[in-house]
Amino acid sequence: MGFGPPDPGPGIDMESLPLPASDTSIAVIGAGRLGGVISRALRAAGFDVHGPFGRDEHAPETDLAILAVPDSAIGEAAEKARAAKTAHLSGATGLDVVDLSIHPLQTFTGTEPPGVLHGVGAAVDGRTDDDRQLAGQLARALGMIPFTVTDRAGYHAAASFASNFVLTVLDVAERLAAASGVDNPRDLLAPLVRQSVDNWQRQGARAALTGPIVRGDEATVARQRAASAQHGELFDALAAATREIAGRPDRDAEPQHTEDEGRA
Ligand SMILES: NC(=O)c1ccc[n+]([C@@H]2O[C@H](COP(=O)([O-])OP(=O)(O)OC[C@H]3O[C@@H](n4cnc5c(N)ncnc54)[C@H](OP(=O)(O)O)[C@@H]3O)[C@@H](O)[C@H]2O)c1
């Protein structure tokens, strides 16, 4: 067993964390989407991995139990776990019933190869500095980029906007395109989506924004609104939010919003 070096004290430098010892034994509880992926990734990183274990299976005693179960089952799984330390993978859940948490800022369907975690951000936390350090070490051992957040609910809402709500909007785009005669809407819309994301990453939304709203072409916006009648409420809400972005003063590339700015 080895959980790495002693507590370095407050102000942990996530970038210089040492990797945890590879003889650390880890049980993965929960054999769903992320349970399978995280087990494969931990194995590929050289850890002594057991599982993933399904609901009615019994995990052995280990140094660490990672609870890859739905958020509502974390309490029950933590009670059953027989490990020196417990961790969950949830973005929204606090540390009431586990020692540490590692939330990969990525979406998984369960079929991904181990390398899928490389370069992915991971929000890490721990009850103590040692626990937080262990969470950061594990994230780094899997090739992820550990970071900490001050407001979990806000952070998780950001993740939902970036993934779940994007899919909701894309589903509407697919339906509208299909209804207007496009045969393979996902294949044809995907390059547009990817380019928009690339532009947003480089420059921020204001500089990346194109289309009738930012051009002030209200006649075209009205025609689009009429054609989107089935999705009228969503169109109106998104058009209002887009007008707000278009009304921002600076067309130049925006610096990324920072924590200090968010607190101001
Ligand atoms: N998937 C993602 O993209 C993603 C991304 C980041 C973080 N996460 C986090 O990862 C965790 C797992 O999410 P998931 O998407 O992998 O969920 P999932 O696909 O629904 O898998 C959860 C698994 O846990 C099992 N389970 C439920 N209660 C259990 C218990 N008491 N003991 C043992 N196993 C139990 C379920 O079995 P049954 O089928 O029998 O109920 C299911 O196989 C969540 O905290 C989630 O927030 C997921």
TrEMBL record:
Ranges of residues in domain DUF2520: 123-241
Q: Where is this region: Disordered?
A: 244-264
Q: What is this protein called?
A: DUF2520 domain-containing protein
**In the record, which residues are listed under signal peptide?**
none
SUPFAM superfamilies xrefs? 6-phosphogluconate dehydrogenase C-terminal domain-like, NAD(P)-binding Rossmann-fold domains
Basic and acidic residues bias located where?
245-264
InterPro entries annotated for this entry? 6-PGluconate_DH-like_C_sf, DUF2520, NAD(P)-bd_dom_sf, TM1727-like_C_sf
